[in-house]
Each structure stands twice: as C-alpha cells, then as structure tokens.
Give the backbone structure.
Amino acid sequence: MHDLDLTSLRLFVAVCETRNIARAAEQHHIVASAISKRIAQLESTLGQVLVERNRRGIAITGAGEILLEHARGMLAGADRVARDMAAFGKGIKGQVRVLASVSSIAEFLPDDIASFLQVPEHREIRIDIEEALSRDVVRGLREGLAPLAVLWDAADLEGLQTRPYRSDHLAIVANPSHPIADRKRCGFEETLDYDHVGLPASTAVHTMLARAAAIIGKAISYRAVVSTFDASLRCVRANLGIAVVPREVAEPVASTYGLKVLPLTDPWAQRRFAICFHDEKRLSPAARALAAHLQSLATPHATDPGGRRASRQ
C-alpha cells in the first residue's frame, strides 16, 4: 500500500463534513474534479469504496467512516507537529502537552500550571492543555498524543506510571427550596428519591453514580442531562433537580447562584487524581519538571495510587 498523503485526507474529511464535493472544493479553493480524483486515488490505494454519490451529494460508506476517524486523528497530529515546530522557531525552549479530565481542569489544574509557569526558569516553557473524558485521556496517553495526563485515579491506568496529585469531594448541590437543602451533608442513597441533573453517560462521574445506585438497588431519575458542571448548577438553580458536583467546583459559586452544597458522606465521594505517564525516564526535562511541580501540590493525605497495581511505579 502506498503512503497516504495528508492533502488527500484533508480533502476527504472536507467532503465527508460537507456531504458535498462541490462545497468542499469551494472551501479549499480548488475545482471539484480535483477532489474527485483525490478520492478515487484513495479508494484505489485502500481497495475500498469510501463515498457514494447520490442526488443530495455524497454518502459515506462503512469503510469511509473508518477512514474518516483515522484521518481526523492523523490531521490533528500533523497540525500539532506544525504548531510545535513554529513554537520552537519563536524561541520557546520547551513544550509539554497535557491531556486532562474535565474535573481536573474545572477545579485546579489551570491554576497549578500557571504557578509552574511563574517560576523564572519555566517562563520559556509552553504548556498545552487538552480536555477530554477520562477514557479518552487514557487512550490518548497510550497512543502517544501527550507525554503527561491528569485524571481521576480510578480509571484503568494499568501499565502506566503514576504520581499522586490533588483530591476532591463530591457533593450534592440543591436549590434552597428543595426538601434536601436543609441538611448539612447526606448519603447518596438519600438523594435517590429525588430527580437529578446528570452528566452524559460517557463521563466518569455518571459511571460512578450508576454503579453506586446499582449497589444500593435503586435507579437514578434524571430530569436533565447536561455536558458541563456549570450547566448542572444552572439547572439546579432553576430547581430542575439536584446534582452531584465536586464540592471544589460548587462552593466558590454557590452564593452567586444561591445554592446549597451538601458534601456526600459515602467513602467513594472522596476522589483522588493522578499524574500519569509511560516512563518518567523518557520524559523531556520540561515534562519532568511539570510532573514534579504538580506532585508537590498533592493533597497531603493522598497516597500514590500506583500502590494498587504492581506495574505502576
């Protein structure tokens, strides 16, 4: 098989996204026949039909869907290479890409990275943070998309090295008029008689809560499902239900939103986060320095999550 060229892949992605060869051609300022030729060459190289033409434009075949997913990843990687090289051309002496879970970015990671960059010898280091769901953070780290990752330590980190980082505590956030709002704290089981505002099923928090409810033998009634913690708080303010949110996210804005925050008493509500990488010895000096800085900020009672798996160090 011949190597796939990035230009053909970029044009193929444009066709898939617009569902129309003519519109893709307009976007890239070339003639439609040139794109058709590129796609035909891809199909010949791969031995698969990638798109089918119809009255409305094109339809992507099963093989095309698979190529589209890989093509987006390859193009994103190529764009990162271009950005990294441009950054070094501007005199940046080091660069570290960090994959991070939603919770870690919402709570503490940006401030911790800012404090790292304030150190004089670190000011010429560039830090790129990419937010993703925990499972995608782990996959990205395993695929080499970044040297470092920060996420909840309950994720599947088998084969990765970890260092302890900060911790948080999940809490119930309620509208002051809600029946549960007069308590100072509560157990998760006590909340299952009420409607919840939840996060998507793909998130780590949703998975944790579903597992906890199953152990109790009850189901969570979701009145609304939203994509961010901020959206959860807005729904709670509208009294659409209660929400499970990290206390560290809710408390700073609770008075502004007029909400009550009740820490959960369940042991699993105390979450630990970890700094993850493949091999500390292979980290660049900049990445190693950042990892050490983040580890120095670890919650005092947090222990190395690597102790649970022999393959971690």
